[in-house]
Amino acid sequence: MIAGSVTWQSLRAEALRRIRSRIWPPGAQIPHEADLAEEFGCARATVNRALRDLAEAGYLERRRKGGTRVALTPVRKATFEISIIRQDIEGRGQGYGYRLLADRLAPAPTEVRKALRLMDGSMSELRFVRALHLADDRPFCLESRWLNPAVAGPGLCFDAQSANEWLVRNIAFSGGDLGFYARAADRALAADLACDEGAALFAVDRTTFSDTTPITAVTLTYAPGYRLVTEM
Q1: 100 contacts: CB under 8 Å, gap ≥ 6
Q2: 60 lies in which domain range?
Q3: Looking at residues 2-28, what average pLDDT do you find?
Q4: Which of 19, 31, 50, 211 could form a disulfide with 11 if both were Cys (CB 3.0 to 4.6 A apart)?
Q5: Whose CA is closest to 16, among 59, 46, 47?
Q6: 141 and 64, same structural domain?
């Protein structure tokens, strides 16, 4: 039992103690939420919140009809925060600059429509925004983005504020996909990022959704020397 008022954080800590001490061993099914709520004298919603957080952290596996089990091999997850590129640059002690290179409605490529789950033929055109972020007047990041026009319609202007910053500040998302990879600079990228053709560049592909509604698909390509730091 947990002494005093039970919060989801204190219940999470107790559940994690039981996992680490092998009271709940790897692969074991843990008690049902209703039983845990009765044991700890709290609402079932409190139990659900604690277990959901442990599942997101990789300690538990939750299945709708199979109950909740301790993960056989706990996954250690990095925390990735969608940052405002301007703040990233200013946090490095550099001056920020921004150039909007393109902003138009256009048919999205098949790979973009697939990533945004639009293969049913809906949304014949998406809003395409391409922009260059600069650090001390040098290219830092090329933002190439496809936007759901229902989220960011033609009345919204990205001349002064980037789509990256506007989305982080104004649009909540519930999930998405994220990919990191290296790419060699072709002639166009070399010109945009002021680097040699063939230079190794760090790139991020990201899609975000609000429930099942697509928000955006973006590729961020960074100039040579960029280093990503996250938390574990």
Answers
A1: 129, 130, 131, 158, 159
A2: 8-70
A3: 86
A4: 50
A5: 59
A6: no
